[in-house]
Amino acid sequence: MSFSHLGLSEKVLAAVAATGYKTPTPIQEQAIPHVLARRDVLGIAQTGTGKTAAFVLPMLTMLETGRARARMPRTLILEPTRELAAQVEESFIKYGANHNKLNVALIIGGVSFDDQDAKLMRGVDVLIATPGRLLDHNERGRLLLSGVELLVIDEADRMLDMGFIPDIERICKLVPFTRQTLFFTATMPPEIRRITEQFLSNPVRVEVSRPATTVATTTQFLARSGRDGAEKRDTLRRLIRSAEGMKNAIIFCNRKRDVATLHRSLLRHGFSVQALHGDMDQSARTAALEQFRKNEVTLLVASDVAARGLDIPDVSHIYNFDVPIHPDDYVHRIGRTGRAGRAGTAITIVAGSNDAKAVAAIEKLIGQTIPFMDKIAGTSAEPQIEPRHEPRQAARPPHRGRHEHQRRPQQPERRPPPQQQPAPVARIEDARPRRAPQPVRKPMDDGDASHLPAFLLRPVTLKA
Ligand code: AMP
């Protein structure tokens, strides 16, 4: 099947050809003809399946006729996060390269109302919005949704996780009853099913599994760690330093505050790292993402919400600093690597019995067992990552100081005497800009003992 059989316009086909895509992905092949036939579509698809183009390409075709009026957008796309909204805008720019007269506006929080208002005033063909800011504009009387012919609700299950469903329901009641609705979700929890039954009209259901490439080309491991934050951070540093073929990595935490803590800790340890979480203002989030995309930083610590659906090609490693609470999030997280047939590695830190339970749920979902690294290395007698009860100083070479980036990385599984460190497999440090020494922080504020002089870390033999 080629794109030319889907009913897309010549302008759209030319833009698709210019991007280099040869064949439509399954979601594109199945959804596009129905969208063009003005049917409601319920798309059950994850990110990485090509679902953005599945709605952007037919929308561009349909918008070639008609004109926008001031304050009355013709189409509306709802996204759960600002980053996803910005990414969809980029898709319109890429695929709409031959649609010069098309007005696309982004209405997201964290940026000035006035600029957005000016754009709405000029008339908008495609409005891409996060729900809260959209409703703010509507309540101020700056935006009328009564002209919306097509509504896209993207990443609906993520909207549910973020508490946006009441906003979505309000917005669905503000757009005309006769509009066409395209609804995308990765999973169908009961609340999402209820929304689809209420707001979709006789939809065509299109379901695609996650791209096989991610699973086939991503090597997955578990790594044991002690449970407290400092031990987990220590484990993570070892994993990063010993990584093979490390180009760049995303490190996922379950909570925003842990993203910030881990980011600070990695910076202190000399890593080249940025953070991405929902409490950062928009310009900081955009800047962090851009730095990571351009390989100006090697590591990105992120929360699920902030990282959901981000299209960052060619990430070599994923680290789950926390086991995700929802098994679906695991699939989303590891979907950031192993893209387009490239090799990737995903390592999940497992600390304690609750984590083990969460891993069991993930294994059930993905239908495969994820091996522990120690078993893989054939050193099950000596786990690669030191167990929780092991004294921390045993894992640290005595000369270890604050500026670890100046040292050679070590293999965590075999701890050689300090003089005989093995040649590093991958030196992430090499890729990092050297940092100036950091100011000394007050002791123990991240529970880490790396600021202590070596003699304080040596085991003390007590005489009876
Ligand atoms: P999405 O699921 O929309 O986030 O898309 C995931 C990635 O697939 C993006 O990098 C797209 O540029 C890419 N993509 C979308 N459609 C195609 C296609 N037909 N052929 C190859 N790559 C595609």
Quick summary of this structure?
With 464 residues, the protein is α/β, with parallel strands linked by helices.
3D architecture notes:
The chain has 464 residues and is of the alpha/beta class. It has 2 domains: 3-207, Rossmann fold, CATH 3.40.50.300; 218-384, Rossmann fold (3-Layer(aba) Sandwich), CATH 3.40.50. The protein has helices spanning 10-19, 26-36, 51-62, 82-95, 113-122, 131-139, 156-161, 165-174, 190-199, 212-217, 229-241, 256-268, 282-293, 304-307, 327-334, 353-366, 373-376, 428-431, 454-457, and strands at 41-44, 75-78, 104-107, 126-129, 150-153, 180-185, 204-207, 218-224, 249-253, 273-276, 299-303, 317-320, 344-350. The strands form 2 sheets. Strands 3-4-2-5-6-1-7 form a 7-stranded parallel sheet, with helices on both faces. A 6-stranded parallel sheet has the order 8-13-12-9-11-10, sandwiched between helices. Helix 2 (26-36) runs parallel beside helix 3, helix 3 (51-62) packs across helix 4 and helix 15 (327-334) packs across helix 16. Mean pLDDT is 79; it is low at 375-464. It binds adenosine monophosphate. Adenosine monophosphate binds at residues 21, 24-25, 28, 47-53, 309, 311.
